[in-house]
Structures are given as structure tokens and as C-alpha cells.
Amino acid sequence: MTTPFALIQPSSLNQGSIPGAPFYKQFLAQGDSWFSIGALPFSATTNLLYPSGLDKRAGVVNCADPGFTLEKMLDRMSDPVFQQLLCGAMEYQWDGILISGLGNDVIHALSAKASEPQERRLLATAVEWGDSTSPSRYISELGWTAFEKYAMALYQDLDRMRHASKLNKATPIITHTYDLATPRNAPAGPSGPWLYKALTAYSVPSSDWCPLADELLGRLSDLICDISTKISGMHVVKTQGTLTPAPEGSTGKQGHWENEIHPSPAGYRLLAKKFSAELQLLFP
């Protein structure tokens, strides 16, 4: 039997104490909608942390916000509280740093206009596709190489923040991979759809939307895993492939998906089971 995390907003911290403490373990979380909100109304879905749990009570101080790129998560101006809690004046001793990042960075990169140079966009224009039948023909390889460097630099920045800490120099970083989303016209209220818009804008044939999305998200998973081999104490929970993709051409909630890129409560329960099991191994 597992015990749900106690999810704590940073604003509820008071004079060096964490509400509900002591905990078996206490984590600092930073992330995007997969750690926060991915649908409207807010009650329509949960997140990867909400249904999670270990076999003992753990606390998570959660700084995540929907729409956050990893770049914004680590920016002292966009979110000064995370930096303060990790290595600043509000620093605590954390057992682990939980990160949900790079998904929105990919979404943002996909939205670059076709008029941008190849190294500043992830998608290739029609004149650049060539004769290959591989879904990679639709990817700007110069743009992907630039994205890899960008992602590595961000995790190096997180590593520097960690090493600047008095208490958390050796605190492990735990992140996850993103599951395979189906490009479809399924927005989250006024936001999105995301993949659907980008692939439509670049005139990618709809028959290749799913193979291309799988290629991009597979590359992202591989990239996160590769970065983890270069950052000391970084662990990746390989959750990709857990959920059943939504049917092509569908809209709205479908099975494990609440909208185009956010899982449903049932989907998050499956992801959380894997995430929690990995945490249990790291923190027995």
C-alpha cells in the first residue's frame, strides 16, 4: 500500500519549516504541466505527482507551473523561489530534486516559423524534405543539434546551482521521459493544440504525423537519458511507452489522454506507478 505525496506550495513555507514535516523524505520539485496543471477546468486531470506515493509519507515542495520550459524553470527572474529553495537564502536539505522538463522546450522549438534559419527550428520546410521515407526527413537536423546543445547547457546550469548549495551538492536529480502523444486537434481550453498546429503549419502530410511525433519524442527521451550520463547523480525514470496513444483524428479526452499532450487521470496513475517504483528503489 502506498501513501500519497504531501504536495506543498512554496508560499506555505514558514520560517524554515515545511508544513506536515517530519517526512520520511522531502523533495523539491520543479516542472511543467506534467507536474502541475494540464487541462481546464483544473479538476479535469491531475499530474504525475498527485497520485504518486511511496510506502512511507514523503513531502514535495512543488514549484512547477504549466507552460514552463526548462529554461524558465531555472531562470532566476522567471522563478526565483526555486533557486532560493535549492541554493539560496531559503535553502533546505532535500533528499531529491524532481524535474519535469524539456517537453515545453520542444513545443516552443516546433513553433518556430519556417522563415527562421535551419538551426533555429526543429522542423524542415517542404523544399528540405528530400526523398527519404523516414519521418526524420521532416526534422531540421541542424535545429535538432542546436536543441541538444541547448538542453545540455540547461542541465549543466541546474548542476551548477546544485553545487552552489551548502546542503544539496550531492542531492540526486530525478526526471522522467514523456510518453508518445498523437498530434490531433485536442486543445486544453484556450491553449493548444501544439503538435497539430506545428505540423499543419509546415504542411507535413497527416499520414506522417504520428511517425514524426514518435521520432521527435523518441529523440527527446534518448536525449534526456544521454544527458543523465553526463550529470552526476541524475536519474531518469523511463516512462515513455506506458500509455496507449490517442486515436488519430480524435478530439477531446481519449483513453489515457485528456487532450493532445496531457494525460488523463487514468494515464497519470499509470505513469505515477512507474515513477513511484523508481523512487522507492532510489530511496529505500
Automatic annotation (TrEMBL):
SUPFAM superfamilies named among the record's database cross-references: SGNH hydrolase (SSF52266)
Superkingdom of the organism of origin: Bacteria
Cross-referenced InterPro entries: SGNH_hydro_sf (IPR036514)
The protein's name in its UniProt record: SGNH hydrolase-type esterase domain-containing protein
